[in-house]
Amino acid sequence: MFNNIISHTVIKPNVETLHFDQSKDCISLRTEAAHAHVFAMTIAGALLTIACVVATAAFNIDLNNTNIDNNVIKHLVSAIDSNRTLNPKDLALLNRTAVNFGIESEILTKLATLVNETNKPSNGVATSSYAYEEGSKDSLPVEESPDYASSVVLASDLLSLTSAVANVKENVCREQGYKFLDGLLLNKRWALKMFDASAKSPQGLLFGSSFHLGNFDECLAIEDRIDDDTVVYGQYCLANIKWRRSEEYKKVRTGRGETLRWAICVPRVCHASAVEQFVSDVLSHTVGNTTSVQVTERDCYTKRPLTLNSLDVAFLSLIFLFIAILLMSTSYEIYCIQWDRKRNSTLHDVVLSFSILNNMKKILSTKQNNSLALESITGIKVLAMIFIITGHACLFISVGPVMDAEAWDRILRNPANAFMENNMILVDTFLFLGAFLFSRILLPELDKRRGRLNVIPILLFRYLRVTPAYAIVILFYMTWFPKIGDGPMWENKMRLEQDRCMESWWANILYINNYVNTDKMCMFQSWYLSVDTQLFFFAPIFIYSLWRWRRFGLGLLGVGLVVSLLIPAVITYVRRLDPTLLLFAKEFTDLISNFYFKEAYIKTHMKITTYLMGLLTGYILYRIQKENYQLSRTLKIFGWTTSLILGTVTTFSVSIFYQGWYQYNAIEAAAYISLHKLAWAIANGWMIIACTTGNGGIFAKLFNWKLLVPLSRLTYCAYLVNGIVELYYIGQLRHPAHLTMLTVAANSISHLVLTFFLALLLCITFESPIHGIEKILLKKFVGPKVSDNTRGDQSQESSRNTSQSKLDS
Fold it and tell me: What is the distance, to the nearest Å, from the Cα of residue 37 to the centroid of all Cα atoms in its chain?
């Protein structure tokens, strides 16, 4: 059956709409073809005979009363008599094809008799527009190709190409389809390339291989003049073929689903609708009406001139402007260093904020000017971001073209891979760290200012700090991202992302895109920034309550924790949701369209528990350091034991939900969604407190590793640009990947390196300069903070050593 599916890859003429004169022309074959092609041409001759019979039957032409050119029939007989290798299977296949087209046996008998009786030469000269017809003075010579070139077109291929009829309504597309068939019979290189670039009989279909991508670059490279008036260009289309499945099969969450992606190389003049109709008609003749086909304009890609709009030009101008400022600021800093010109002025500091040298020194420095002994936060941030990026890479690799559909399911079922699967709790770690730092830094400020701290500038400057780099990345999605590459799925993926950003960019900038236009979210990872910003604006209420009214503040925080535990549990139980975001490849062909992702995972009310626990941890550490509280040995043992148990259970328990024997339970899911976040927050909270108070042991040494310090300054930008790396990977992928833990790990490492490289560029160009200006303005209008980096190293070390010595004593 699938040998006939080869015909999916070309547009074939509709013989039912041809006049009999044209059908006569189709019969003419080249009898002087090379011996290697004789068998294929024999089959083609017989097939073209059937095509002519179809045309005859369609127009009710009586064979006995029709003057068929004897010269044409002579060519046909010569082609058939030149080789007697038609075996019974081929004859049976021809007969079956004739029956499928409804050709009556009586007509076949008459035509066979007519062919056998016609042996006399004819003096007539047949006229035809086909280049391969013998006797035409203007016929084009057969293009010389390697001997193996025509091996891409087998006899069965010619059978499919000639017998399957496409009802192409577009005249230009249909006409180039004729020329394509001519090119195949003439061994034209461009036609062979077009056929060769298309997907052939499925390989590994029963193994779960659902992406048959052909050869993308070979198809796009086709550019050939086939006559004086026509130049054919290759167009690559990736059809979506959906097989009918039972309702029981649709409930199965493993595997790759019922969609087959099939590559077709066609002339550029053919629109997506014509390709869709063609594939649908072919499948209806081969596998029946059990499939549905969809081909959109975004599924087709061809070489076109680069087009720019005003937004593209504006973004490029903005980039060049920033580059010019960076170069001038860098030149200014070099001048100051060369001539030893040091100036203490606001303008001088602002100019240096854009200097590449100054920003590189800040990023690559391993010194941490922190008087609160929070160096361990650096390592935790970096390690969490590394695993988040790795999780994103694994997800996009798994949902892209793969050879073995069950490979990813086997990886998910392996408990050893649970840390990669539980990527979601690592994102919660960043929410926890953000809340912890805000609480720990703001409480001493309230002490210093006796509660008269104006938080409005802090909230405003926070918005101004994180938004510029974020906005630049959004603009890149809206303008140049779709223009920087190509690939089988590039047009589909990138245009979709561009359209989403064009429609929802304002929701991102206002940090409400996790509730507004969730089905058109720009940047799949941007939900986190909205959740963090929304909680950041509410955090001062809890922090001030803890500082001003200790018991009331603790009570308010306790009530908030109880409510934050109940909300996700009730929603999960009532709506029968998953206990967490489960990474089944079948459900993540488009992450933003995933039901759980857009309805539950990205919502702020599902993430409050982790954030409140971060505020509480910051308050506890503030009290410990303020009162010089000494942790007892019993408390240390209990704390580490509890932390390790909760962290291990929370990390590896997620693998239960991927096992084949697992049966969904709403109560279990409701309990897990709330309690696993609480357990993870407790584990992280103790680890931070222990490391900060000098009780971290090997964990403190790891988190305080100086090589992690530069990477910690890139984590925000890395989170912003990681989506570019993942989408680029899946968009330009030419062939299905073979999934093993080794290949997944290797790809993840490459994604990690590329992400941090792009993060460095973004940080130097936008994030670091804006951060420098924000610090200058914050010092000017709000005053120095306790953890301000401008303090001297000596005072920092003195403060830290004093605090640690009291705790250690």
Answer: 44
8 A C-beta contact, residue 226 and residue 239: no
Q: How far apart are CA 366 and CA 381, in angstroms?
A: 15
| Pairing of the two strands 223-225 and 231-243 | antiparallel
**Mean pLDDT computed over 122-150:** 43
Q: Which residue in 2, 7, 82, 13 sits closest to 41, CA to CA? A: 82
What residues form DSSP beta bridges with 225? 231
Residues sharing a CB contact under 8 Å with residue 738, sequence separation 6 or more, in sequence order: 402, 403, 404, 407
- CB contact at 8 A, 139 and 133: yes
> What confidence score (pLDDT) does residue 407 get?
84
* Number of Cβ atoms within 10 Å of the Cβ of 155: 20
| Cβ atoms of residues 443 and 547 within 8 Å | yes
Q: Which residues contact 287 (CB under 8 A, 6 or more apart)?
A: 1, 5
Q: What tokens does 586 get? A: 């079948």
Instruction: For Cα atoms 255, 256, 262, give the angle at the middle one, nearest 5 degrees.
Output: 145
**pLDDT tens for residues 306-331?**
889 999 999 999 999 999 999 999 99
> Looking at this protein, which amino acid is placed at residue 430?
F
Rounded to whole angstroms, the Cα distance separating 55 from 165 reads: 12
**Reported pTM:** 0.77
DSSP letter assigned to residue 402: B
Q: Ranked by mean pLDDT, which of 40-54, 184-198, 713-727 comes out on top?
A: 713-727
How far separated are the first and last CA of the chain, in Å rounded?
Answer: 82
Please answer whether residues 53 and 94 qualify as being in contact, where contact means their C-beta atoms are separated by less than 8 angstroms.
no
Name, in order, each residue with C-beta under 8 angstroms of 628's C-beta and a sequence gap of 6 or more.
803, 806, 807
Are 546 and 619 in contact, with CB atoms under 8 Å apart? yes
Q: Which tens digits make up the pLDDT trace of 112-131?
A: 554 445 444 444 443 444 44
Question: Mean per-residue pLDDT for 215-242?
Answer: 88
Q: Which two tokens stand for residue 355?
A: 């200097």
- Nearest 5°: the CA angle 186, 187, 192 is 130
Q: Beta-carbon neighbour count of residue 428 at 10 Å? A: 24
Give 408-463 pLDDT, tens digit per residue. 888 888 888 887 888 888 889 999 999 999 999 899 988 888 878 788 888 888 88
- Summarised one tens digit per residue, pLDDT across range 728-763 is 999 999 888 888 888 888 999 999 999 999 999 999
Cα separation, 429 vs 433, whole angstroms = 6
Hunting for tokens 């993060």 — which residue is that? 759
Compute the distance between CA of residue 268 and CA of residue 275 in angstroms, rounded to an integer. 11
Q: What does the radius of gyration of the chain's CA atoms come to, in whole angstroms?
A: 35
User: Which H or E run includes 264?
Assistant: strand 259-267
Three-state SS string across 280-292, please? HHHHHHHCCCCEE
10-23 exposure pattern, b = at least 16 Cβ within 10 A, e = fewer: bbbbbbeebeeebb
Joined together, the tokens standing for residue 264 give 């077709």
- Percent of the chain scored above 70 by pLDDT? 73
Task: Tell me, rounded to whole angstroms, the distance of Cα 385 from its chain centroid.
Answer: 19
- Give CA torsion, residues 274, 275, 278, 280, to 10 deg: -110
pLDDT digits (tens, 9 = 90+) for 614-669: 999 999 999 998 888 888 899 999 999 999 999 999 999 999 999 989 999 999 99
